[in-house]
Design goal:
This protein is mostly beta strands and about 675 residues long. It has a domain at about 45-60 and about 75-90 and about 400-674: YVTN repeat-like/Quinoprotein amine dehydrogenase (Methylamine Dehydrogenase, Chain H, 7 Propeller), CATH 2.130.10. Helix content is about 0%, strand content about 50%. The chain has one helix and 57 strands. The strands form 14 sheets. Strands 1-18-17-16-15 form a five-stranded mixed sheet, with no helix packed on it. The longest helix has 14 residues, at about 10-20.
Amino acid sequence: MNKIFFIPVRSILLLLIILLGACVSPPAPIAPTATVIPAASPLVEASPTLIPTEATVLPIPTETPIPTAPPPLPSPTPGGPLSRVAAWGAGVPLAAAYLPDGQSVVVLRPLALELRAANPLGDLRWRIPLATPPSALAVSPDGATIALSVGAEVELYASADGHLLGRIPGLGSPIADIAISPDGRLLAAAQADQSISLWDVAERSILTELRLPLDEAGLIVPGSFTSVAFSPDNQFLAAGDDGGNVGVWAMSDYVNLQVLSVGLRVVADVAFSPDSQQVAGASEGWRTEPGAIWIWDVATGEEAHWLGIADETRFLAPAQRLAFSPDGSEVLMGLADGSLLRWRLADTSTLAQDLVGHTAAITALAMAVDGRILTASRDGSLRIWNTDGTSADTLSDTGAVAALALSSDGSLIVSGDEGGQISIRQPDATLLTQIQSPGGSLHSLALSPDASLLASGSADGTLRLWSMPDGALQSELVGHEGPIFSLAFSPDGQRVATVGYDGTLRLWRTSGVAERVVLLLQSDGISNTALYHVAFAPDGQQIAVASSAGEISLWRSADLTQIERRSIEPDRALQLSFTPQSSLLARTASGKILAWAAGSPVAILDANTSSYALLGDAGIVTLGGGTFQVWRGPLSALTRYADVPAPEFNRLVANTTTIVIGSSMGMIEVWAVR
């Protein structure tokens, strides 16, 4: 009989709270306290200045792919409208693994597969381009074959030189993770359709599909599988899903033995102990529950260990990766904030070691037979650690781009990544300064009109002001309770407006003084109170704010008095800007760009837009659907002027002559506009 471990009662209660919360209407915005201003002026061709791009909403989550090399130039002649002038960033490492001999490391990037020496990591043995972004990596026990999942298929490569050996066709469902059995015969694929498919590697044929059993009480709720692993003795297979389940099957007859649970949490990774007697799952946790590793006895399903910290000293970020030491006495834990923790199973009451180095989410964690540790992160780096936890080698590159800023004259390009690193470059990619900002992931950046100051908004809710281009910290301004999602300089460069998770609009003096604050959305403990974006009008007299309540509000900057509300429900505005004539533009969650004429919103573009920027008298540039596009003409009658492939890019800034695009997978390109 299968032994089933049900979801804890507290998790069911939390689920009920979430479902009830979905029925609660968001708090009503504050009523106007002044006379409504006249409708925005009719649409005209604009020549506005740069508006900062939208800040990314928490957290990260999952890893989206990006090219390791710039895409090919568009087809126009050399005198055409756009030309790429610079590009940097190889793409963050999505996965990494040792070959069995421990002398080589396989690295999976968004559009490349690499084999590197384990020492030094900078010794590249081969690199092959990938046509489609991959999702997972596995190495055969003999080290001869490298498997990677691409969409719903699996591609097999020779580790000797990287040539393609063949493909496993898959079953049509996206694959999140793969594993090869210890004898090298089978490949398991964790699929989004709530199944695990088992394949004969040599024959490239399907053997069976595994699914979680359904219990009579209905307390097992299957989710999309996220992770899969074989036991070292080849007797068991385990898989975790995004509903908190860890299933264990016998490989002899494919019968389900256990359904273990971490509650209604995402299980990001699974692994067996070296003796195959225990199975572990990495839980991402929840708002009030830390990231943790759960370890169970395979035979009985009894919980053996819970590895986590949730007290006044620390609250762990979501657990992303885990690995047992070769002797099974220790477990390593990689977190979403870049932390790498070592636990000794003989005494789990205290943390054994905190290995400091990464600053963004851990994407790979592996141990060699001799105990050396391999890690990869969304900060763009690969690291090798000695057995005692000291750093042995690091290979760094551009991290996951979270924010961009561009000076009005195009002389400075600033990027910020998920690990808090700020890079200041010239348009030709020359690096001027790098800053490691405290406070976690950067969500927003803006340069003052004269480019003498940089403002940054971080996950810790602190506004920081830096002098340019040397990057010296000038001020740290504290007030927000939660991440700052957007910020903007006033046209005279004397003030900065910020909005964020806590529902407040705050105005600061660049001299380092908090000026005013107003609460737009009051928290009820459940509803979203986030303010997504903020923008100053060209004369500096008005500030526009986009809120999660589905409204755009206009505020008098002198005293933060509300003067107008504009609803676009059921849609929501995620990004705002003003034309020089003070007409308001808004990008919506549905991908439209709206303007206002005669007091009503009008869609001037409906092009699946994920970001946009104004090009002065050259028009508008939009990003979305795998391309960026330049639009010319008056705003009321824009026509497409040029488009360029930009797969997986999701950050955009521009001025009249320059377009900069970036990706959360670690790449930046600079384009000149003719």
